[in-house]
Design a protein that fits this description.
The complex is a heterodimer of chains A (172) and B (281). Chain A has one domain. In chain A, 74% of the residues lie in helices and 0% in strands. Chain A is built from 6 helices and no strands. Among the domains of chain B are: 40 residues; 154 residues, Thrombin, subunit H. Chain B contains 4 helices and 12 strands. In chain B, β1 and β2 form a beta hairpin. Classes of the chains: A mainly alpha (172), B alpha+beta (281). Chains A and B meet through α1, α3, α4, α5 and α6 of A and α2, α3, β1 and β2 of B.
Chain lengths: 172, 281
Amino acid sequence: MREFWAENIKIQIQQLMPVISSILFVLIFCIPRYPFVADNIRPYVSIICVYFWLIYRPYMFGIISIYIIGMLEDIVSSTPFGINIFTILFVYVLTNLIYKFVANKPFTVTWYGFAFIAASASIIKWFVLSIYYSQFLPFIPLIFSLLATIVFYPIFSFVNAYIQNHLMEDDI
Amino acid sequence: MRAKNKKLLFLKLSKIKLLTKRFAIVILFLSAFAFMLISKTDTKVIGETSSLAMNIVSPLIDTLSIPAKITVKGYDYAVDLQKTYKENIALKGENLKLNDENRYLKSLEIENRLLSRLLDYIPPPEATSSTIRIVATENDAFSNSVIAYTGGSDKIRKGHIAMSNTGVVGRVENVGKMYSKITLITDINSKIPVIVEKNRVRGILIGDNTNINKLMFTPRAADISIGDKIITSGIAGVFPPGLPVGVVISIDKSGIKVKPYADIQGAEYIRIIGYDIDEAN
């Protein structure tokens, strides 16, 4: 009986691993003082995680999980509440649209797909926020953050792939 | 009959479930827009909910940052040890200079007090100060804010100014039970009444999510030049006057640009300056 429960809990944790790891990454990137990224140039970790898990384990990364990650970003940032939820849902829709072109393809193709998704999400967020504030937000920090996001994608993919291969079983 | 109803009810429930599933993405998109609209029109509801959620999320970030802090502190300690000897010599010299300045300032203070008494001058209230620890930062192209641990202090209120050891950092935006959110002066929502130190020309310092601020609403003929120091004006009674904010770095057709003195990157602690003019009166 005890073994059954232990196995059950293990499966539950493994199923929640993509969400847990994504939330942890978002929170870790809020920790002040990490020297490898400049002041206001910060990769959009949530977009990286959502894209990765939607490509590699789509059935384990539901829309509610995505909503929670967006909400978490809204809580810690000073942007209008709802904008990060909107952006991350946009990533979800767009990833599902291009899924067949990027899934089960070489890494570079997936990376190009990610660059497209990240650029589209950043621009739509910039556009919605510009409407919200009734003025155009500066574009240059956005471009640098976008470049940082694209550059960081392989590193995060490596960590997420490690989680997928070592902390999750194949049949889950 | 009862069985038929149940079946009917079952069908209805399943239909609702099916519809919710089919339109989930639309419903969630609409909710995101609803949140944005609410935060545009009524900041109180969103502010209170957000501060409640912030109090749940912030301890998590605080815990996660422990290993990072230990690593950074160890590295800093090793670097500091190397610098200590040189710094000690420089500090001894600086200390002598500061002692002289302190003596001069004390005499000025006495003189000022005597003159104020002579003129029957009513001084502004004294500002209170508390130091708090930064737990999380969110600096990107869209927002510039930090979350700090306030430990339930009732001294910290919305609107209070936050300072680093070099200058004004931002303003308290959201006060939670144990944590508070501070909007940095570089954030697009930040607007601070300031003056140019040399000639007391008034203006508003506005953030735009870059590292440089804009000085706006200054008189057209105002004598402002590169290198001028910008300090808080104390107008509206929200901030104490005379706090260092930044320095003018360029003046062109697009406006006057100010580089803030404070650098939040790497800062662990900030000071919150309370200045409740209404309460003092």
